[in-house]
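Before drawing any conclusions, I needed to go through one protein's amino acid sequence and its backbone structure tokens, quoted below without any editing.
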Amino acid sequence: MLPSHGKGRRFEPFYAHWNIKSWAVLIPKYHLSKISTEVEGSIPSVPTRIIPFTGNEYEKPYWKDREVPEVSILEQIKKLVELQKIDAEIYEFKKGLKEKPALIEEFKERFEEQKTDLKGLEEKLKTLQLERKAKELDLQIKEQDIAKANTQLSQIKTNKEYTAKLTEIEYIKSDQSILEEKILISYEEIDRLTALIGKEKTVLVEEEKKFLAQKKEVEDTVKEIQQKVKVLETKRNQIVPDIDRITLARYERILVNKEGLAIVSIQGNACGGCYMNVPAQMINEIKMHDKIVYCEMCARMLYLEEDLK
């Protein structure tokens, strides 16, 4: 009898409904070499194949017994150097792409500055014109005051009043003369400023043409660079699959942190990236091609030019 499992249901072996003609299971060496059961429809009694593991069998992954092709360190280095040449070009191109918008902005700022200067001159001209009109209005008032005072002279009966009125007229005429002088100066200033504005407008038109031409040139250069980067990235994608995944990840991390230069050659006895001395023992390790060697100072990957021949 099988144990009850509620409402008449019974526990059954996990293999109770299997219907397999031939099979084999991989089990540790201390398990039974045969499994049999009398349950109808269950797994038939068959011999099992035992893999003789050493140590703890459960700690050894199933793929450890597969044959994995060895990765040649020298071939990996050659691929990395080939990749570095492409990445160095991509880095410089992308660096240029970052600078181009700043160049356009510089041209634009220069042009906008000239527009602002012109606007300032126009505002100054407007102010001078308003001041001149105000002075001309004051001059009209002075002329009216003089005419009124002259009319009052004929009505004065005493010498004292007559003298006082003459003095008043003289003061008005003096103010009138000052106003006339200021109006003349303002006319000259307005004429000078008007001529300057006309000249600046002509210059600004030429500067605008120059700015638009420079902008177009930069934009065309950007498109050209983007196309070159696209071509290089296509070449890069053809090389990447041939490089070990972990090695590639390290390379790309260094590439980002070291301004586009991840693998460098030994120059003399120095690192080609930071130019610090590389010990002879480390150079010997590079020659052995057992592993990828990193500079102790800048952490870049190292190789020997002679290995590429």
